[in-house]
Amino acid sequence: MKKLIIFDCFGVIFDEVAPPFIRKYLPEKEAAELKEKLFVPADRGEISYEQLLENMAEALGLEKEEMILQWNSLFRLREEIVPYIERLKEKNKIALLSNAPEGVVEKLFKKHDLERLFDKMVISSQIRMAKPDNEIYQYCVSLFEENFEEIYMIDDNLKNLEKLSEIGIKPIHYKGTESLKIFF
Hints:
39% of the residues lie in helices and 14% in strands. It is built from eight helices and five strands; from the N terminus they run E-H-H-H-H-H-E-H-E-H-H-E-E.
């Protein structure tokens, strides 16, 4: 059975970074609003990663250099997922679909030698589309130019999974590697 399994990056392969970082400085509601205001333009490629960091430092009242040091220390690979992806890749096509500013995911994947795990990688800022818009999922699937009997999207954010069944993608809410047991 031919399957395509699509993974999110932050919250699945790497720890989530933006929400916990911003919540250190702001209450939950304000943090969510600021994340939306700052990160959506960066995820859509409308502003650079550098501009995002400058805007975030200004919005939080932090010195940019100190903020960047704190920020960069939060990018932690969830090493436990790597063997699962390796095993899934043996019999399936594997894709990455991430909302991220340009350059962030690429740098992390190179540092941790993760590119080898994915047949295709789609980063929102590079194509100026972002999750949860269905067009980005359809774009990702179209890159394979083949038909799949089943397509799955693994994401920690329920908002990114809500409308996937409308386009024939099976959502999997990631809560840890036990969420992947469906494949084994």
